[in-house]
Every structure is written in structure tokens, then in C-alpha cells.
Records
---
Amino acid sequence: MTRSTVRPSRYREVRALLELAILGFLAEESMHAYELRRRLTVLMGHVRPVSDGALYPALKRLEQQKLVARRPEPGSSGPPRQVFELTGTGRADLHRRLTEPSELDITDRNKYFVVLAFLHFLPSRQAQAEVLRRRLDFLRDPQRGFFVANGTTLRAEELTSPFRVGIQQIARATSSAEQKWLTTTLNAIRAELPTTN
């Protein structure tokens, strides 16, 4: 596979993730691009810095799709500033994106955390539970792991590098904590749902 065939797919993934985060933050409140960029950086900056060169084209795409609108707001000592807000169509699109996350949105921790950050905007508790269930199923998959041989995750004593042992221990501890939280949260959501006979 050449670099040119990998790049467009990766670019689309990053673009979709940025758009989801923009829609999510604007669902919370309307804001200036500067504040939006600050919040995006806090959420996603450790993975990929959010530059003006990424933010403004994303906002423009979302405006063209009528998912986001802008309005001028008087500036205190200068020209009006642009405030971005989510449209009704944008809210519906946010719900769709949260209800139907891709497999990569579930399996890639950084992408999943962006979905999780806005999952409370889904009005359906059943839809929220379905996203969490998919993540839990992924974490419980015995084929998943950093160091796998013959379909089985290697035990610490089978690894030759102390650094790989460290990666595996950290990953297991993190996965265990996340599975515990997911199980507790799913049980709480299920308790709220009406029972069917």
C-alpha cells in the first residue's frame, strides 16, 4: 500500500473527528472560533494540535452543509466578531454521528473519547447503551492486545523487553478500569429503561 492510498483515508478520519468535536461543543453553546479552538485543543490537542488551518476549513464545510451557522456579534473595540452556532440540522447530524460511530471510533481510544465526550447529547438512553456495549465488547475481545502470538495475548513472562511488559501492564490496568466503569454505567442505564415482556 503506497502512502498516497493511505493518506486520503487517514485525512478523512481526522476531518470527521474534528467535525464531530465541533458539532459537540457547539451543541453545548454558541461560541467564537477562538474559544472553540481552545476547547478542541484541550480535548484533542494531545493527539493532534488543532490549528487555524484545520479549524476554519472545517467550520466552512459545516456551514456549507447547513450544520453550523455564523452570526456577527458586536466587538467591544473593533469590528464584529463571528459567533458560530449549531443549527437544527447540525444537531440531527450530531445525533446520527453519535448513534452510528464507525468501528474505528469504537476501537481507537482517542476517537472513542471524542465520541464519549458528547454521548450525553444522544436523547436515547438505549442508543447510548449500544455505543458503550460496543466498546465493552471490544475491550473484552481476547484477540485484542499489543503483543499477540498465535491468537493469544502473551503473558508478561513471555515478553523479552521490560518496556513491552510495562506497556502491557498499563494497557491491562487501563482496560480493566474502563471495563468496570462501562459495566457499572451500562447497568445503571439498563435499570432506567422500561422492561419488555
---
Amino acid sequence: MGRETIRYYIREGLLPEPTRASRNSASYSEAHVTRLKAIKRLQEERFLPLAVIRSLLDAGGEDGGERWLEPQAFPELDSVLRARLDHDAPRVAVSDVMAQTGCGDEDIDQQSAAGVIAVDAAGTMSARDATIMRVLGDLRTTGFTSERGFTTESMKFYLDFVEWVTTQEMRLFFEHTAGRIDEAEATDMAERGVASINELLGLLRTRSLLNKLGARRPTANDDS
């Protein structure tokens, strides 16, 4: 890892400042080395952006959460869980997605630029991303159009929420399972947990919306 990369991580808050004996001399501890290895591993193996990595490390407390970020903490869980959840679904050509959803090149480009979907160099996306485009198309048909202000940028808070909640989920899961159960049980837990939490979030969100609409009615009547 290059010197400038390390300095960048320090500036971004991913690494603590080293001990400096002089202006041109810095002393790094084993804690720095461990954290650098964790950052590199999360980038290369879990494809996480630096902002999420920083949240994961900070959420672990003073030790930076390195205990559950060690490679021996379920090293095969990522690949096995991905295979189970995706069921080896083939990638879908962008042209097919456009034909099925009625979206155009601009829609694909906007969602890709915003990080909602990912299109590879071959012009394909995952089956899950194709489903996301279908759902976005359904929303547009329902009336959630850019002309009415429902733009990709205005709905970016969904992406921010997902990044935040999944960061907390990963921290909580690994903290309470790593070193306590074997990888097979952890994979089963994670697989079932994804479906259950998806259902739970939907129920909680619907309940909260209805409660807020209910609270809004008397407030509106009082104001009138």
C-alpha cells in the first residue's frame, strides 16, 4: 500500500494519526497495520465503498471492530450467501431490460450513475438490478414521474438509508456470531435473516406511514 494511500486514509478518518517523531518521520503501530489490512480486505472481497468501511470500523469501538473483520470470521459466507440469494441467475442484457420495462438509455444511465444499478462493460446487469428497473418502471407508471419531482436525485435518500442500515446489520451480525457459531449456521442465519428483515422493514414502514397519515389529519383540521 503506497504512502499517499495511507495519508489519504488518515485524512478521511479511516486511520488514526501516527506518532510523529519529526516532520518527516512517523511511527505506525500494529493497530494501524491491522486496520489497513481490514480496509483492503473489505474493498477487495466485499466491494464496499470507503464511506461504508469507515462506518464499519468506527462502529466497532476503540479497537475499530477488527475482531469481527478478521479473515477467519466466516471467510466463505460472502460467496455462499451470494450464490444462495441469486440462485446463479443469469445476467440480463440492457436491451432486454429496456424492452421489458419501457425505460430508455437515459433512464439506465441515470440509475447507473446514481448507484441504483450496475451495468458492466458487456452491457448487462444482474437479475436483481433488472428487477429494480422493473419496479422503478412500475413507480413511473403509477405517477411517480420526474415531471412531478420524483427524480433519481430526489429519491437518493433510499440509497443512503440502505447503506446505513446494512452497515449496522453487518456490524451487529458479525459481532454476535463470529467465533461463536460455525460458518454453516451463520450462512443459514444470514440467508433467512435477509428475507425476514426485508419483510419486517416493509411492515414497519407501512405502519409508520399509516400512523403519520393518521396524525396528519387532526393536525390539518386544527390548522383549518
---
Amino acid sequence: MNISELLARNGRKFANKVGFISGDLRLTYKEVDDVVNRLANALKNRGVSRGKKVVLFSPNTIEFVYSYFAVQRLGAIIVPVNAKLTTGELKYIIEHSEAKTFIGHHILWPQVAPLINEYAIDWISTAPGIVGVENLYDLIEGGTNDMIECDLTEDDLSTMLYTSGTTGSPKGVLFSCRNILTVATMMCIETGINDDSILLHMMPLSHSAPLHLFFAAGTYVGATHVLAPTFTPDLLLHLISKEKVTHFFGAPIVYLATANHPEINRYDLTSVKRWVYGAAPLSAPEVQFIQEKFKTDQLMCVYGLTEAGPNGTYLSPAEHSTKAGSVGKRAALNCEIRIINENGEDVGTDEIGEVLLRGDGNMVGYYKNEEATSETLRNGWIYTGDMAKIDEDGFIWIVDRKKDLIISGGVNIYPTEVENVLKTHPDIVDVAIIGVPHKEWGETAKAFIVASKPIDNLDQVCRDFLKDKLAKYKIPRLYEQIDELPRNATGKILKQPLREKVQNK
């Protein structure tokens, strides 16, 4: 079994069932499978073949679906990337992935346009009439109906997702079909997704949880997918009420923002069987607030790591009444968990250690980075870098991130990446970025700046400098100029004193 065959099988098994809803489009599994086959034939004629990388730069639209499956039908490796990336960030991924084909959605084309003449690759857009760029729909129209059967095995590569590391350089995380099918199976069983389910996809399908836990899971069992290119509380409430959605996944900020919607009581949300959230826990007061506003007791927290599929643990709806803020007490299906101390021993009650995850969902490795792979994946275990403790009832609580990762609104921000860009400013000598508490977003980034001279309007200067260099969500909201950064005897920056500085204000 492979990812392409999931769609092909549904095209035969659920031929007349609406499988995909995107705006006004309502397409059956067979209709989508036929389009995918034509597009695959067209891409094959343009040189896409087994093992080659194809970058997919699109929000959650039907074009994403066509491209995602067509690339894999040829045995090529799909590389979905965040729709918020800047031109410079796209440039890095094109070069690092060694992709020879790029498929981009027309609403994101302004970020792509400066690169067209820089790279001799096959550029494809959903918009017609761009010089030097092929139109996706022209390819579909011109593609033959010759049946293509994907011959990938479960151990063959399927997908590469980019995630930043503490070095600041994004890493390409490679997944086999087995990795994806493993976590998709887990999610179907743990959340009750089946062929009667209707899944709303509002979180970016370029991220592992929306793509593998929900999109792949829903396709696995022949569920109906509702695609939304962006999130707003209005759109979330409207689509759930209109389409009778049964399963939704979102970051905590999505739930909190929607719970504050002044007209939430006008919408019928009773069709939803599981409200799943991840990327960060919700506190007990937040859970109570959301449950009251959504009129539900079906909140479910999932914890995992991109490199683990993602797979990890979950906090069931029933456990929220007493353990909100925890990530659960056991590993999810197809996964094992350990929390170890610095000696590699399992921690005791209330002792803090690093979270390790093992299962068939674990990545194959980082692309072109054996050193980082060997550091993260050891003896079958993913070393997450997350620090956690186990309470007296066996529930796991994430207490810190070993690698200083900041999670803001469910999105990962890696400080070193941002610090390295800020250091290129002519007046900035040194930078350290930490996460500070934020009422709505969980955390937000604060940059401590050491400069060669006093900088007036520091916030605005830094934001303007970063605007075209980093995606908006990575740009810190808070800034403070200081004389020097705290360091230890070997010169390493100490961020804990900076955190204490914020706490004491």
C-alpha cells in the first residue's frame, strides 16, 4: 500500500461519494482520481519520475489535492511547504531539496515570481498566462487517461516536510509510505474517523499533523474532506455548521479565538464528534471556557513531533476534567514513549527528563544531514528535545523545550533562525530570543538586542528589517535593547537569566 493507492482505491470503492469540498466545488473520489491520473501523465511527460522532488506551494485548496496525489502516483517525493514562506525561504528549500519541479498556487505567486529566472526548473502555476510558467489546468486538460499504477512499497519514500532546527537551517524530514500509514491508522482508531466522517482542514496541509494525522487518515478510510485555505472564526463556524463536520484539528489559538466570537451561539456545532488540538496544551481555565462556548465535552489533546510522524500521546475527552494541561498518560496506538534523565534512565514521579518516542511513524531521517539524523534518531527512538515530568497518576506534563523552541499560536518558531537574520543588520551586534507568555497565543517571541549604538524605535526597525526575510509568524513581537547578553565561562549565551528578567518585571 502507498499514499497514491489510497485515493485510487477510493475512486473505485467510493466512486460516487463526495470526497472533497473546496469552496463551491463538490467532487467525488472518482472525479478527483481521474484528474490526478491526467495530471500525473502530464507531469510524467515533463520529467517527473520516481524519487524526484516536487515542491508544492499552496494553501488548502483542491489544487493542493490534485498535485499531492499526482506527484506520488509517479513515485516522486512531494515537498509541501508553508504558504507563509518568503521568497528567500523558498529559495533555500528549492536549493536544499534539489527539486526540479515547482507547483505554486496563484495567490502565493508574488513570493515565487522573483525566482523564476534564477532557477532552471519546471515552474507550474494555477494561474494562466505567466511567461515561462506552465498552467496546472492546461496540464490536466492535456494529460491522457492512461492508467498509472503507483508501484511504491510501504518502505519507499513518499514525502519531505521542512522543519527548522536549532542551527537555524530548515531540515527536510523524509517519510516513507509506512510512516504515514502508521500515524493515519492511529488517528482513525483513536478518534473514530471512518467513511461516514467529515473532516475540516483549516490548518496548513504543509504541516505534519494536518497532513498525516487528518488528511491521510481521512483518505485512508474514505471520509469527506472540507478544504479551507485560511482560518477565521467566522469561516470555521460557518463550515462546521453548513457541512456537518465531525472532526476538526486546530491549534489552541484557533479554539480560543473562536470561543470569543460574539455570535458563536448562532451556529450549530453539534455534528462534531472530536475537537482535536495540538502543538501546545490548553490550561484548565481555557478548557472550561472552550467547552462552555462550544457546548462540548469532546476536546482531545494530541502531542507528538514532526519527526515522529507525528505520533506521541493524547489526552482523552474524559481526562480533561482533571488533567487539562497534560498531554495524557500513555502513548497513542503504534507508538511507545519514555522520559529519561541525563543518565538514560526512566524518570521517577515529578522528575524532569527528555521525551523519547518510538514507532513505525518515526521519520526515515533528515535529507542530506546524517549528523542531525543520528542525534535525533537513536536505536529507533526519536529524542524530542522536549522536557517533561510524570505526575503521581501517571500523566505526562511538558515543562520546557530543551532546544528553546517557541510555540506561538500552534506554530513553531526556532530562535536561532531568527537570531541569525537579525545579526545581519549593520547596527546589531548580538541577539538572543526567548519565548514569553502570551494570553492568546500561549507564547510570543521576545528579542534582546545588543547594538553598536542606541536604536530609536527598535521594534519598528527590527520588524521592517525582517519583513521580507522571514515569514510573518517568525518575526518577534517584543524587543529590548541591552548592553550585553549573559554568557557562561565558555561563551555560550545563557537564556535563563533573560527569562527571569521578564518574569521579574
---
Amino acid sequence: MTDPTSTPSLRGTVVLLLASSTGGVGQHVRSVARGLTETGQDVLVCGPAATQEQFDFTAAGARFTPVEIPASPTPADVRAVAALRRVLAAEDVRVVHAHGLRAGLVAALARPAAPLVVTWHNAVLAGGLRGRLSRLAERVVAGRARVALGASTDLVTRATAVGATDARLAPVAAPALPAPRRRRAAVRAEFGVVADQPLVLSVGRLHPQKRYDVLVDAAARWRTRTPPPVVVIAGSGPAYLPLAARISTARAPVTLLGHRTDVADLLAGADLAVVTSDWEARQLFAQEALRAGVPLVATGVGGLPDLVGDAAVLVPAGDVDAVDAAVRSLLDDASLRADLAGRGVTRAAGWPTEADTVAALRDLYAELAADRAGPAAPGTDTPSTGRA
């Protein structure tokens, strides 16, 4: 594990910027904010007020100022750029670190005097006008960021392809889950799982990218198993109503749990974890499942193959037959599940930790500050502000 105190804190403020988030990006920003402030670094998080309500960055030691950046481009982006400029002008900013393409675009248009770092957390999957606008935003962000960080190797490749002059891999570590508060039997009893009945779990935002329709369609086939598995999906999002309708029509044994804060408990009760996304970088739930020793079936997309190696069963995206077959093979073979669970724990032990992630970012920030200071005499503090 990297020592998070090995690099001195920067003088001035590190600004962390994010757009609307209910999941992994917000958790990552909170993790980074906590790690930086624990070393004495002044951190200001900027983003929608709703992100502060959900992730409580101030409890992690950071300051927070609202800058409303919605999940999709709107005319309000002009106000977000102006608001960010006002924030930066009032601070002694040493680094601006935007998380995600939406936040990166607002930061790029604000033209901070301090070095701009942008972490690419997601690939552009949309088509049509929205896809074209997103790909244009990619080029703007890549051209104006001092460093582009990709959460997976395909994102690094994409950032380079659209103009980033310095693109680097920066794996996002899932925050460590707390110990389960309930016993396995109590968790399973909540969902009416009887003895020898499998509990299949998935966790993530209810969004078309997650392709929970594939899991629902596969689960509908499992009604004829004896006993039929119980499938639960924890998460909230815009796809809730279509998924609920699909579950009802297919008579699938699937329950939508909504937002949950007890993922550690859910994993303690689960026999199998499933990820059916069209794309992921280093999905937090996939990391949590392997750390918890829960066998995982996941789509071989984005950064997932590099993340899990041979410690999960990988299937093609959008393939109901493949998900069905993979889950059946694991449910029918306890020794295979046990082997996969052991390999998962071993694989997870070699991943970067939250402390490693924070230490790498502090090294990067120090590198950028030194580059910006130029050939100043030793011991000379070169002042920097956020003023454009």
C-alpha cells in the first residue's frame, strides 16, 4: 500500500468538480476528498447541491460550493460555467480536477488558470444528436485538459484519439464496504428465500446502459428451476418503470429494491452476483462482489476483463442466452462457485486501494504544480489563483 503522506500537500486549494451523480462518480469524489483532507490538503468540492445531500462531502473534510451541472447538456451550462468562474476567482486554486465528461466540459469552458485534470469515467454510448454533442464535448475536454485520466484502458485510448496530449490510466478503487450488520439468514429472510434457494444480486443505477432487461429476461427462464432463484436488483434511476413493467409481463422472479445503503449485507446473503452492462470501466459493484467472495457473472466489456481476469465468468453484452447459461452452470455446481469465489478474493487483493488512488493523485497534482512553477528559485512560492 502506498503511503498517502509521502508527498507534501499543495499550498492552496484542490478543486474537485462533478456533475449530477447518484452512484460511482460521487462515491469516488468523496473518497478522494476524504483522502486528500486527511493529509492536510485544502479541498473544495463543487457540484449540484443534490450531490452534497447524497454524498456529504463536508463530512469527509472538504468544503462544498454548489455549481449546478445537470447530467445532460442544457442552456443552464452557461450559468454553471459562470458560477465556476466565480468560485475559482475567490480561491487560491492549484489544481482543478473534474470528474466525468459533463464536469470536464464546464471546467474547460471556464478556462481555469490552474492546471485542469479530467477523469474520464464513462464511454460515450449515445447515438443521434446527443451522441454527436457528446463526442464534440470529448474533443473540447481533451484539448483543454492538462492531463486526461482514464478509469480503464479503453478510456485512455479514446482520450488520446480525440486529442489528449497526456492521457494516463487511473484505476478507480471502490470504497471499502463496512462489515455486514446482519447475518446471512436474516438478509435472505427479508426476501423470502428458503433453504437451498439461490439469491442472485445485482447493484447499480437503473439506466439503459446497465441492461437490466437482459437480466430480467434471463431470470424469467429460471422460474422452472427447483427451487427457482430469487433475483434482487438494488438501485434507483430512470429505467425503473420500464423494468417494473418488463418484470410483470415476463413474470420474472425479480424484485427492484430501490436505493440501498446495505450492499455489504446484500452481498453476505447472495449466492451469485450479476453485471449485464453494455459498458463499464471498473464497476464498483463488480469490485465489491469479488472482495466479498461472491461469484460473479459479468459482461466482457470496457475495463471489466482487465479488472476481473479469470476470477469471474465473462459473457457477451446483450446476450440473454449467455447470461442464462452462465448463471445455470454456477447454480448447478457448488464447487465451481467456491473456486470462483476464492479466485475473486485473491484477484481483489491485488487491486489499488483508495489510499493508493489518493497517493497517485497527490503525486500528479504535485507534478503539475512543479511544472507550472517553472524554473523559480528553490524555496520560492509561485502564487496561483483561479482567475482566468
